C-alpha cells in the first residue's frame, strides 16, 4: 500500500492502483452492489476529459504538454486499457463526483508514470487543477452521460435494429403471396397475407430505428460549462462550445452547449425522454416476438402457420420438444429494459434545486438497456427471423375453415343475413359455401367471386380478381 493525500487527509491506496485517495475513500464508503459504472460511461467520461483538455489548450489556460498528456491517457482509457482502475459502485454519490475524481486521479497518476514521476506525486498533472480545469462534477458527469449514451445508441442499438428490420423486410417480400387468416382480439378476422403481417413487423422496427435517432437528438445538449450550479464559475465563456465541437468531431454526432445550464444540471428530462424512446422500442419488439411465437405454435395443436428454426432442445422430460426460445429471450429482455427505463423516469424526478443526484443510476440503467436491447435484437434477427419458413398449406387450411370470410358477403346479402349464415355454419359445422348455397342466397359463380380470399387482402380491387 502507498499513502496518498486529499483534502480530507491521508489514505492508504493499493500500490498497483492508478487511482488515488478520493477514489479509495469511495471504494470503502460504497460496497453496495458490485456493479461498477458502465464501461461505455467510463469511455465517454474519458472522451469528455480529452475534449476539455483541447478546449483549455486552445483558450491558453492549459500548457500544450499537459493537454497532450491528458489526451494520451484519456485515449488509453477509451481503448479499454485501464478498465480495472474504475472500481466504483453505481450506488455512490448521486452527482457522480466520486467517478469524476476517479477519472481525474487515473489520468494524473498515469501521466506521472509516463513522465517518470512517482504515482501520487501529482506531477506533471494535478487531478483537480489540470485534469478538472474549468469543470465540476456537476457539469462533467451529465455531459458524459449524454455523450456516452448517444454513442451507445448510435454504435450498438441503431445497427442492431437496422439488421432486424432488414431480416423482417426480406421475409415480408418472401411471404407476399401466402394468404392466411387475420386475427383481432385473438379471434378469426378477414384474410391478410403472411407478407402483409411481416411488413407490419418490419415497419415497427423501422420506426424503432427512428426512435433511436430521436433519443440521440434528445441528448445533444451538454451541461459542460455550467460548473458547480449552472453559473459557469471558474470556466471560460468560450469553453463549452469548444468542448462540444471537439466531441462532435470525435464521435460524428452533433453536440452543442445547453441552452440553459440550470435546466441541464438541475433536471434530467432529456435522459427520461431517451428512456421513453427505449420503452417504446421494447414494447414494439415484445409485440413482434409474441406474434412470431404464436404463429409458430404447435407443431400439431397450435397455429403452425410458420416454422421457427430449432435452436436447442426444449424440455428435460418431453423428448423432441422444441420451444420458441428466441422469442422468449427477446420478451424477457424487453421486460428488463422497460424496468430499467422506468427507473430512469423515477430518477428524473429527483432533481432538487440545481442538481439531480441520481446520475450514476441513470447511466447504469440507460447503458444496460441499450446494451441488452441491441444484443437481443441482433440475436433475434440472426437466430430466429432469418430461419423462419412459411407453411402455405396450413395457412390455406385455416383460411378455408374460417367463418370470417362471411364479411365479404355483406355487400351481396346484407349484414344480418351474413351474420345468420356464419352462426348456422358454426352451429352445424358446415362451410359458409354450403350454407349460402343451401339457402340459395347466391349462385355458385357469384359466391366464388365474393369469397375469394386473395382478393380480400387487396382492398379496393374487384372481389372477383385473381
Describe it for me?
- This protein is mainly alpha-helical.
- It folds into 3 domains: 2-133, Orthogonal Bundle (Fumarase C, Chain B, domain 1), CATH 1.10.275; 141-393, Fumarase/aspartase (Central domain) (Fumarase C, Chain A, domain 2, Up-down Bundle), CATH 1.20.200; 403-456, Orthogonal Bundle (Ribonucleotide Reductase Protein R1, domain 1).
- It is 58% helix and 8% strand.
- The protein contains 18 helices and 10 strands.
- It has helices spanning 21-29, 39-58, 64-78, 97-115, 127-131, 137-174, 194-218, 239-251, 261-266, 269-295, 325-348, 359-383, 392-401, 410-413, 415-428, 432-438, 444-450, 453-456; strands spanning 2-6, 9-13, 179-184, 187-193, 221-222, 256-257, 306-307, 351-352, 355-356, 389-390.
- Strands 1-2 form a two-stranded antiparallel sheet. A two-stranded antiparallel ribbon has the order 3-4.
- Helix 7 (194-218) runs antiparallel to helix 10, helix 10 (269-295) packs parallel to helix 12 (359-383) and helix 15 (415-428) crosses helix 16.
- The mean pLDDT is 96.
Summarize it.
This protein is mainly alpha-helical.
Give structural attributes.
elongated, mainly alpha, 10 strands, Fumarase C, Chain A, domain 2, two-stranded antiparallel sheet, single chain, Fumarase C, Chain B, domain 1, Ribonucleotide Reductase Protein R1, domain 1, 466 residues
Amino acid at each position: 500500500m502507498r499513502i496518498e493525500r486529499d483534502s480530507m487527509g491521508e489514505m492508504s491506496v493499493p500500490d498497483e492502483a492508478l487511482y488515488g485517495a478520493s477514489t479509495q475513500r469511495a471504494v470503502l464508503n460504497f460496497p453496495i452492489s458490485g456493479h461498477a459504472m458502465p464501461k461505455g460511461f467510463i469511455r465517454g467520461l474519458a472522451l469528455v476529459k480529452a475534449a476539455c483538455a483541447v478546449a483549455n489548450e486552445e483558450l491558453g489556460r492549459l500548457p500544450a504538454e499537459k493537454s497532450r498528456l491528458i489526451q494520451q491517457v484519456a485515449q488509453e482509457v477509451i481503448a479499454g486499457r485501464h478498465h480495472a482502475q474504475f472500481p466504483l459502485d453505481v450506488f455512490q454519490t448521486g452527482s457522480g463526483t466520486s467517478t469524476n475524481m476517479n477519472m481525474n486521479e487515473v489520468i494524473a497518476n498515469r501521466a506521472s508514470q509516463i513522465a517518470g514521476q512517482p504515482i501520487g506525486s501529482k506531477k506533471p498533472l494535478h487531478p483537480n487543477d489540470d485534469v478538472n480545469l474549468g469543470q465540476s462534477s456537476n457539469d462533467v458527469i451529465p455531459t458524459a452521460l449524454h455523450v456516452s449514451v448517444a454513442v451507445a445508441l448510435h454504435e450498438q442499438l441503431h445497427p442492431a435494429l437496422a439488421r432486424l428490420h432488414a431480416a423482417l423486410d426480406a421475409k415480408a417480400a418472401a411471404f407476399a403471396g401466402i394468404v392466411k387468416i387475420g386475427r383481432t382480439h385473438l379471434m378469426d378476422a378477414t384474410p391478410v397475407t403472411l407478407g402483409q403481417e411481416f411488413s407490419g413487423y418490419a415497419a415497427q422496427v423501422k420506426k424503432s430505428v427512428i426512435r433511436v435517432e430521436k433519443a440521440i437528438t434528445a441528448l445533444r445538449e451538454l451541461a459542460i460549462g455550467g460548473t458547480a450550479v449552472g453559473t459557469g464559475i471558474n470556466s471560460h465563456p468560450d469553453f463549452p462550445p469548444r468542448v462540444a465541437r471537439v466531441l462532435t468531431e470525435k464521435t460524428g454526432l452533433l453536440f452543442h452547449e445547453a441552452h440553459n445550464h440550470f435546466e441541464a444540471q438541475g433536471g434530467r428530462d432529456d435522459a427520461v425522454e431517451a428512456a421513453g424512446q427505449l420503452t417504446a422500442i421494447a414494447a414494439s419488439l415484445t409485440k413482434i416476438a409474441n406474434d412470431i411465437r404464436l404463429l409458430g405454435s404447435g407443431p400439431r395443436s397450435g397455429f403452425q402457420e410458420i416454422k421457427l428454426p430449432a435452436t436447442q432442445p426444449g424440455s428435460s422430460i418431453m423428448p423432441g420438444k422444441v420451444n420458441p426460445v428466441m422469442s422468449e429471450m427477446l420478451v424477457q429482455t424487453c421486460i428488463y429494459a422497460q424496468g430499467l427505463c422506468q427507473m430512469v423516469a423515477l430518477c428524473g424526478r429527483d432533481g432538487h434545486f440545481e442538481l439531480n443526484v441520481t446520475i450514476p443510476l441513470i447511466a447504469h440503467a440507460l447503458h444496460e438497456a441499450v446494451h441488452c436491447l441491441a444484443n437481443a435484437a441482433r440475436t433475434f434477427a440472426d437466430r430466429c427471423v432469418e430461419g423462419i419458413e412459411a407453411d402455405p398449406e396450413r395457412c390455406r387450411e385455416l383460411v378455408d375453415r374460417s367463418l370470417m370470410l362471411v364479411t365479404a358477403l355483406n355487400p351481396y346479402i346484407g349484414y344480418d343475413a351474413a351474420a345468420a349464415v356464419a352462426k348456422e355454419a358454426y352451429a352445424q359445422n358446415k362451410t359458409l359455401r354450403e350454407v349460402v348455397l343451401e339457402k340459395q342466397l347466391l349462385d355458385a359463380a357469384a359466391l366464388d367471386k365474393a369469397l375469394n380470399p386473395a382478393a380480400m387482402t387487396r382492398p379496393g380491387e374487384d372481389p372477383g380478381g385473381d
